Amino acid sequence: MEELKDTLQAQITLPITPYKLQQEIIEDKHRFRVVSCGRRWGKTVMAIRAVAEMMAEVYSKTGKKARAWIISPTFPLVREDWMIAEEMFKDIIVNKKQTEMKLDLRWIGSLEFKSAEREDEGLRGAGLDCAVIDEASRVSKKSWEQGIRPALSDKLGRAVFISTPKGRNWFYDFWLKGQQNDLEIKSWRYSTFDNPYFPLGEKESIMETTPELILRQEYLADFLEDEATVFRNLDKCLRGSLEKNNDKEKYSIGVDLGKAEDFTVITVVRESDCQLVHIQKMNKIDWSLQKKYIKAVCNNYYNNIVYIDSTGVGDPIEEDLSKSGIVVRGYKFTNTSKQVLIEQLIVAIEQEMISIPNVEETRFLIDELKAFSYEMLPSGKIRYTAPEGLHDDGVISLGLAIKGMSYMLYQKKEQVADKLPHNSPAWIERRMLDRDLENNNRLPRRFRQRINQELAFS
Q1: Torsion of CA 441, 443, 445, 451, to 10 degrees
Q2: Which domains does the chain have, with CATH numbers?
Q3: pLDDT in tens, 146-164
Q4: First and final CA of the chain: distance in angstroms?
Q5: Three-state helix/strand/coil letters over 192-214
Q6: Bridging pattern class, strands 102-105 and 93-97
């Protein structure tokens, strides 16, 4: 066994040498090893290395080549695991069948890659010596109980479960059992930052800029009870009432423009106390009529700044509104700019900085906020989105309104200044705008005319 193990280790190509915490898990002899850890801890490489050693152990004891599976929750993750294994085992692959997602490895046996997207379908009928369940918290309990677990039974197969947490589901129950000196199961939990190869500067950046929910779950590997809730503390923000314009107040208006089946939503927030005072939702209305609605809201709640989705068709609408004298700023959406916008809104709601009336007109917005979710992309970036079949137009509109008044959030709750850096683009932009409003000769002519008209009217 030791001779084969040494030969195998010499033939496996690793991006980095397993560090102490990984090596402890690789060498552990429990039948089921459950590893909950933050992203970029190195769990996939570690688990694939572990499965190779389990296969070698089977061959050494029985003289028969082992059969092993690596199971992932989605096909894109299956491909990721395939590419990692292909590189690691490139010197011992004797046959590669990509259509079947199968690698035949010299000495030790065959390694197959499976998706659990269809739960236990495709996970039946095999007798397995060992398996890796990648991102196990995102694999259904049915896939484990009716597909993978029976496949391991007749050969007393072993398995390594690796994942970042996703709430307290069956993976959490399994991990918890592994903390109780069980003879078959042992579990570990490590944060991203327990990886000695993780860049120190990146750690500091993540700790300073990542919303608490995502930091705790995706990097610190905490099992959160409300993991699906992006906007936590929302119930404590449900207060106040919709109100008409007050000439002495400033307002920030967010406009998310509907496309195809989406809705156009206009949200007005009063700056002095961050109170949502007006919201309007519409769809399947001609663009020219939508512009009239937007102008009407801006005229009703004047002394405002408007942030509008200027992606695609929004560009000419932004220009038309600007020509009519409205102080408007376009916001072009990319995955990165959406992340910035949403994370600012997350902090505002977490810290109870804003107030949203719990009334019929805002019901759709509250439902959107409660359903809003995120996913971690293979690149490690975050993508915020509404669940399939639902909308996020109200969320985006509220986020745009908050962007227009982000500097007010600092004045209201300075203790969270570390979460919203003072040199953020929105903060600088609004500071500059306020300075220009005080000295309006610096503004473009159409803005100076509008301000002078309002001063004369008042």
Answers
A1: -80
A2: 2-219 (3.40.50.300), 234-457 (3.30.420.240)
A3: 889 999 988 899 999 999 9
A4: 90
A5: HHHCCCCCHHHHHHHHHHCCHHH
A6: antiparallel
